[in-house]
Amino acid sequence: MHDHESFFRDLRRLGVGERLLTRPAQLVAYESDGLTAFRQKPSAVLLADNQDDVIGAIKACHEHHVPFMARGSGTSLSGGSVPIQDGLVIAMNRLNRILDLDPVSRTAVVEPGVINLAVSQAAAEHGLYYAPDPSSGPVCTIGGNVAFNSGGAHCLKYGMTTNHVTGLKIVLPDGEVCQLGSDSLEGDGPDLVGAFIGSEGLWGVALEVTLRLLPKPERFYTLQAAYDSLEKAGTAVAMVIASGLLPGALEIMDRLSMDAAMAAVAAEYSKDAKAVLIVELEGPREEVEAEIPLLRDVIEKSGAYQPILAADEEQRQRIWTGRKSAFSAVGRLSPDFIVQDGVVPRSKLGHALAEIDKFAAQYQMRVANVFHAGDGNLHPLILYDGRQEGELERAEELAGEILRLCIRLGGSITGEHGVGLEKRNYMSEMFSEVDLKFMYQMREALDPRQLANPGKMLPIGTAPALVSHGAHPLEKQGIVSRY
After folding, report:
1. Which listed residue, 10, 18, 48, 373, has the most CB atoms within 10 A of its CB?
2. Strands 88-91 and 44-47
3. How far apart are CA 127 and CA 114, in angstroms?
4. Residue 473 pLDDT more than 70?
5. Is 452 strand, coil or helix?
6. Residue that terminates a domain, selected from 312, 328, 344
7. Average pLDDT taken over every residue of the chain
8. In sequence order, what are the residues at sequence separation of 6 or more whose Cβ sits closer than 8 angstroms to the Cβ of residue 8?
9. pTM of the prediction?
10. Average pLDDT for 266-275
11. Cβ distance 275 to 177 under 8 Å?
């Protein structure tokens, strides 16, 4: 930043008063996100009260060449919402109004600070809900969901955020406001909404998001079954899919994650099980009733034991609380952990898990496995103690082995957590030079000054010569400090 004072003067002209935080103690809460291995203190945080605050702040950033980042609840698990050195954080949590909820068209227009779960709570009186359900749903914001294309346990059947957003009002990195998409499911022309979703803030900031709502399923059938090996649980997943069933969710937890969930939320699991499978059928009553015998037959043949069937909504929520608390619960087993979200083809799940076991033994580290088994989205949690010298580096090496394994098996380095800071150096291993060049061209066209969340997603030091300002500015700029 060239001139702090003139920039701050321009920000204060927006009438932000004490909502512009600059004291070191005020900034501490914003220096990291859910991936605490990365942290950086910004020069200031603006607690935006309305859309004009956001637009005005971005215009000031553009004029003064100040990098900026919009932030919701900071639950990113890839370092995607870690501040930029000398940059501005625009905190979006106060933009939390549901502007419109139309039960006839089944759409809701919300501001980016609206909490994910709050949309379903508001839609419930109309018999509707918002399908994407990340584990952080009670706290994460729709703006963050859009930035990272969040998924959740039910993405097997219902897809990701991108499948449930039809329109966006955004502010580009130079302060221009524009509308993408509409309130219709059938758009025309290039899919700019789809391109913006998952762009991790590199294209600007969403101000309003038009969401598609779904009717609440008439009937749920939630089954939890134990297995004496992870491999058997993985085979059961393949058997369920091969039977023609498309459950709302198909989740697996291993022994370590079960132990953590039992300690944290008193979840019920067999003491000797090596894995537990959660299958949930949902939809019209007649459809679910017809599918139940088929599912029971498959589960019986898969070698499952101690099946627990959710007899009522309370027991169903208990099953899901155990699964959704797994990430935070692992904190009881280890002072620190890294969670990955690589993806492998379903047919390679068993092989991938066996390889992860080998890596864990080789690196002498514990790895807890929780995953969206239905679509091959792994969530290995690598446990380490950051107070021990070299442990973080060893954990990151192991995480890298897992990501490369996913690429080798024909999968992806991320299913729903995004690339952020954590996985940007693996982008060139997954994508060709031509692919990456196109990504940089998109970035250059929309943000030639590279002010919007710089340093995230795109690998540093490999920007092609097409970037007009020559050397990549981030090579000279300390984006993050490590500890």
Report:
1. 373
2. parallel
3. 20
4. no
5. strand
6. 328
7. 91
8. 20, 22, 44
9. 0.90
10. 90
11. no
